[in-house]
Write a structure and sequence with these properties.
- This protein is of the alpha/beta class.
- Helix 2 packs across helix 3 and helix 4 runs parallel beside helix 5.
- The structure holds adenosine-5'-triphosphate.
- Adenosine-5'-triphosphate (ATP) binds next to strand 2 and helix 1.
- One of its GO terms (molecular function) is ATP binding.
């Protein structure tokens, strides 16, 4: 049974179809990345899933929840631009949020201490939030989002505005949290999604154009090319390469030869065997794989 099921979810703003009949199932314990360029519909999707805005049509159902139950107790949400009371300390802020989530004073204090440790802010408990770095604020934001032990944590572009250190800290924190809860986060940075997520949902113009693990996507869209440079004229070797059984195409570009093949390992073997046997004056040999960005473009244009 899926933890969360989304059926034909749609949001229209006047004449703009921001989210267009999407269907998703989230299994417990997964970390899912919602990927898409600006305006793809990521924020709108997350806001509908977390109950912050109403869909135009379609349905979001949570395992074991009735139609009139308040789903917000199952969800922790970190918006793209979280707002903090910057004059509070991290500890004061979390206790305040805990009280808003109906925890008793003792529970809120206990949970705050646990969370400050979990998100690595124990040394900054008494520092005002206004003095926190971007990465510290984001980690505090994650702590406030999970103060009530939600089953699903949803984060909107959690690392987009961070410097490399802040980004690293937040991605490592997500790695830790995914042991305990289901995570859905949006991003337009494919390498971040690749790093921490188990599954990807590719959103484009409000539609899910592809889904699966990064390995699934690589298998489906990634192609490899072997790039060869020679001391002398590469055309001399092109004919031999074209005759090798596993080579698909072989073309010349900027005085280098580019070879495509379905089975790149076999092609490599055949090329290097010919090169050794015929003593080719090879100056470089490398395998180039489709970048993550190209992979996304291929999926979108599929
Ligand atoms: N309140 C609104 N009123 C009208 N149009 C909106 C509203 N919110 C979003 N949109 C439009 O809906 C589309 C999807 O927006 P959304 O913010 O969900 O995309 P996104 O993928 O989160 O983009 P970004 O990465 O830029 O935040 C965009 O074309 C946006 O202009």
């Amino acid at each position: 049974m899926s933890l969360l099921t989304v059926n034909e979810l749609t949001k229209r703003y006047d004449d703009k179809l921001a989210v267009d009949h999407i269907n998703i199932q989230f299994d417990p314990g997964k970390c899912v990345a919602l990927i898409g360029p600006n305006g793809a519909g990521k924020t709108t999707t997350l806001r509908m899933l977390s109950g912050l805005i109403k869909p135009t049509s379609g349905k979001v159902s949570f395992e074991g929840m009735g139609q009139h139950d308040d789903i917000r107790r199952l969800i922790g949400y970190l918006p793209q631009y979280p707002i903090f009371h910057t004059w509070m300390t991290g500890k004061e802020f979390l206790i305040y949020v805990g009280r808003l989530a109906f925890l008793s004073k003792e529970e809120a204090t206990k949970r705050t201490n646990e969370l400050l440790k979990l998100v690595g802010l124990e040394d900054a408990v008494n520092k005002r939030i206004g003095k926190y770095s971007g990465g510290m604020k984001q980690r505090l934001g994650i702590a406030q989002a999970i103060i009530h032990h939600p089953k699903i944590l949803m984060l909107d572009e959690p690392v987009a505005s961070l410097d490399p250190i802040g980004r690293r800290d937040v991605l490592s924190l997500l790695e830790t949290l995914k042991q305990e809860m289901t995570i859905l986060f949006s991003t337009h940075i494919l390498s971040d999604a690749d790093e921490v997520s188990d599954e990807l949902l590719l959103l484009h113009d409000g539609k899910i154009v592809e889904s699966g693990s990064m390995d699934d996507l690589r298998q489906k869209y990634q192609t490899s090319e072997i790039e060869l440079a020679f001391q002398d004229d590469p055309v001399t070797y092109q004919k031999t390469l074209e005759k090798l059984p596993s080579i698909g195409t072989c073309y010349l570009n900027k005085n280098m030869l580019f070879v495509t093949a379905e089975n790149i390992q076999q092609a490599r073997k055949e090329i290097l065997t010919s090169a050794a046997r015929e003593d080719w004056p090879l100056t470089s040999y490398s395998i180039k794989r489709t970048s993550l960005e190209d992979l996304f473009m291929k999926a979108v244009n599929n």
